Amino acid sequence: HFFATYDGSGNSSGVRLYINGAAAEFAVEMDRLTESTKITAPLRIGIREPGTPAPEPMRGQVDEIRLYSRVLRPEEVRELALAKQAGVAANESKSLREKLVGAWSFDDVKQDKLKQEVVQDGSGNGHHGTVEFTDQNISFEPGKFGKAVRLNNRVIQFGPATGDFEGTEAFSYGCWVRRTDKPKQGIFSKIAQRPP
Is the pTM of this model over 0.85? Predict the structure, then answer.
């Protein structure tokens, strides 16, 4: 289980990473976070954007994705890591529903009119996502709970407004992930593509 929180301070000291509910150390590559994510680029899961280090899509499995517009406390991250059921559960802490932007489980994936796989948003906010190129190198298989998606060089894409935060706004995100690629490949991205 991977989770990241950011307090809106503009500095790496405001970032916390968690692995399986426990705080994790990390190396700082850039210590001034100034840019906004309020851009026309969509939120993507499974890739870092072109023009960034290691932009190739990830290979591996993701499940139970969550995005918040606030910093989760360490005990809340731990509760998500130790959860015993899928989705937004009736028995989870009420605080885990506060400022929940999106919650994506892969147990309720539907096809739209274009025959694209649509990942339903369990938060009630309507931020459904689509899986790009579902006819190629993707599968739904047993995950942490119910189904997970295996992204073999494929991406889940959400609308441009999903995950819009200024550099001064707090947010948190995470999921269950099982990687089968290089550890530096991206999991989440929302960045404008810059010209070469």
Answer: no
Q: What is the DSSP string of 33-92?
A: ----S-SSSPPEES-PPTTSSS-SPPEEEEEEEEEESSPPPHHHHHHHHT--SSSS-TTS
Whole-number Cα distances in Å, 48 to 4, 12, 56, 59, 106: 16, 19, 7, 12, 21
| CA torsion angle 17 189 101 107 (round to 10) | -90
Q: What is the Cα–Cα distance from 78 to 23, expressed in whole angstroms?
A: 9
Sequence letter at residue 122: G
Task: Determine the residue type at 179.
Answer: R
From the list 25, 28, 64, the residue with the least C-alpha distance to 45 is: 64
113 Cβ partners below 8 Å, 6+ apart? none
Q: What pLDDT is stored for residue 44 in this prediction? A: 72
Q: What is the pLDDT of residues 51-76, one digit of tens each?
A: 555 556 677 888 888 989 999 999 99
> Count H helices, E strands: the chain?
1, 13
Give the 3-state secondary structure of residue 98. Answer: coil
Residue 132 pLDDT > 50, yes or no? yes
Which of 13-17, 137-141, 158-162 comes out lowest in average pLDDT? 158-162
